[in-house]
Amino acid sequence: MNDDNIIKNPVPKNFQKKTEAISPVKNGVIGTGTIAEKNKKKAVEKEVKVKKEYEKVAIFSSKSVSLPGVGKVSKGYNIIPKNTLDKWLERDHVREATPQEIAEEFGL
User: pLDDT at position 76, please?
Assistant: First the structure.
């Protein structure tokens, strides 16, 4: 084919970036008086979610038990949030474990 016989309608570069937008015109009338850029893909900033750090403590339980609103512990050594320690220590089968006990138990 001969390129001379082809009718071309090039799309201007600005055509894809700008479109008419509805906006207020004179006297509060709404019309298409301004040109706005299309929303470009914005770089999405990832929010770094920081885990809420809390102090942890080790306890030893002679039973597997759950407390409503507090959590569960298994028989043996457990790591729990420090803010729940008082609730667990109210139970007669739970005691706070020392760091030396934990080290011996896990071979550290």
Answer: 93
Rounded CA gap, 42 and 80, in Å? 42
Domain boundaries, the chain: 56-105
Entry pTM: 0.49
pLDDT of 105 reads 84
Q: What is the rounded average pLDDT of the residues 74-97?
A: 92
HEC readout, the chain: CCHHHCCCCCCCHHHHHEEEEEEECHHHCEEEEEEEECCCCCCCCCCCCCCCCCCEEEEEECCCEEECCCEEECCEEEEEEHHHHHHHHCCCCEEECCHHHHHHHCCC
Which pLDDT value is given to residue 40? Answer: 47
Q: Among residues 71, 92, 101, 93, which one has the least CA distance to residue 83?
A: 71
